[in-house]
Write a structure and sequence with these properties.
It contains 15 helices and 12 strands. It has 340 residues and is an alpha/beta fold. It folds into 2 domains: 158 residues, Rossmann fold, CATH 3.40.50; 176 residues, Glycogen Phosphorylase B (Rossmann fold), CATH 3.40.50.2000. The chain has a 6-stranded parallel β-sheet, with helices on both faces. Strands 3-4-5-6 form a 4-stranded parallel β-sheet, sandwiched between helices. It is globular, with a radius of gyration of 22 Å.
Length: 340
């Protein structure tokens, strides 16, 4: 994104592996030497600083909650992006060793980076709460989403996806890994007496077995579809096919699926606390994620009220423009300039 809007600068990407990266050529920097390749985590945390110095890097940006040691000693300015501190807020969801590693890296990063960026006001509050960092030292820059979700799909494209994946004519949608924190079982319970089926899309976990058991017990096998493995283009089309996007997660650092739905002009029902109103804006429908009856009422109300759906689509699309690439990249560049 920065390369597109500010091509006059040089951007280097440091990564221990090429899998999953979209960059190539001289801008992509991999670890050199047997030790660095055998122990990439040590390279990321310590030995990478030697490479940064050799490449005459001015600013290092840690994109995932960590920065390497030795930056200040080598006069390299730094920014760290903190996505969430869920491992501290809900420690029971993580293995003890993972919690220890995540906490150690995040704590060092926020205490030593020249700039701290939180992806939401909720994450900003958590950084202050758990690490004692003054709020004035933390800036909030939101995340965007893939361009595919901003492109209007044709009726032909939608019908092709419907036939390919055997999707119903009407459905409500939830996207995200199927785990307890995401609260998909609550949606299943809420649609029990609603005719419109539910499509759950996401990576399955042991929690999925609990959902499947409930579906079987309640005779809802024809009403709940659980799928995964869609391409980004397919998923963006499915968003636009859905009647409602439902996201009753208990906690997130931000909530990209919400803005994906808003760009898709799909009405959103989501949680009434934490980060969710930041992502969903004033025209999404907010519910208590633990209240099945409240969620069922929200679904029924939106499905039956054409005027309400139309307003939610139009106003939601207006609100989500604040997450456009040109808006966000300007905020990032302004921050980089502050460090030069």
């Amino acid at each position: 994104m920065l390369r597109e809007y500010y091509p006059e600068n040089t951007y280097l990407t440091y990564t221990p592996k090429t899998q999953g990266t979209i960059f190539a050529g001289p801008e992509l920097k991999l670890p050199h030497g047997m030790l660095n390749n055998l122990f990439p985590s040590i390279w990321r945390s310590y030995r990478i600083t030697k490479d940064l110095t050799a490449d005459k890097v001015d600013i290092f940006h840690g994109l995932s909650g960590e920065i390497p040691h030795g930056l200040r000693k080598n006069r390299i300015r730094s920014i760290v992006t903190i996505h969430d501190l869920i491992f501290l807020r809900y420690p029971e969801l993580y293995k003890p060793l993972d919690r220890y590693i995540y906490n150690r890296k995040s704590k060092y990063a926020v205490e030593n980076a020249d700039k701290i960026v939180a992806i939401s006001e909720q994450t900003k509050q958590d950084i202050t709460h758990f690490y004692g960092i003054p709020q004035e030292k933390i800036d909030v820059i939101y995340q965007g989403c893939h361009a595919a979700f901003k492109q209007k799909k044709t009726a032909h494209e939608k019908e092709a996806i419907r036939k390919k994946h055997n999707l119903p004519e009407s459905f409500v949608l939830n996207v995200g890994s199927i785990e307890p924190r995401k609260n998909a079982l609550q949606i299943v319970k809420a649609i029990e007496h609603i005719d419109t089926p539910l499509l759950l899309i996401g990576k399955e976990t042991p929690y999925t077995a609990q959902i499947r058991k409930y579906i079987m017990e309640k005779g809802m096998t024809n009403k709940v579809l659980i799928k995964q493995g869609f391409t980004t283009e397919e998923l963006s089309t499915i968003y636009q096919m859905a009647n409602i996007f439902i996201y009753p997660s208990k906690f997130e650092g931000f909530g990209i699926p919400i803005i994906e739905a808003l760009y898709s002009e799909t009405p959103v029902i989501t949680t009434n606390s934490g980060v969710f109103p930041e992502a969903g804006g004033p025209f999404s429908y907010y519910i208590d994620p633990n209240n099945t009856e409240e969620l069922a009422y929200a679904i029924s109300t939106i499905l039956s009220n054409h005027t309400m759906r139309t307003e939610m689509k139009q106003k939601g699309l207006e609100y989500v423009q604040r997450f456009n690439d040109d808006v966000l990249v300007k905020q990032w560049m302004n921050m980089y300039k502050q460090l030069t």
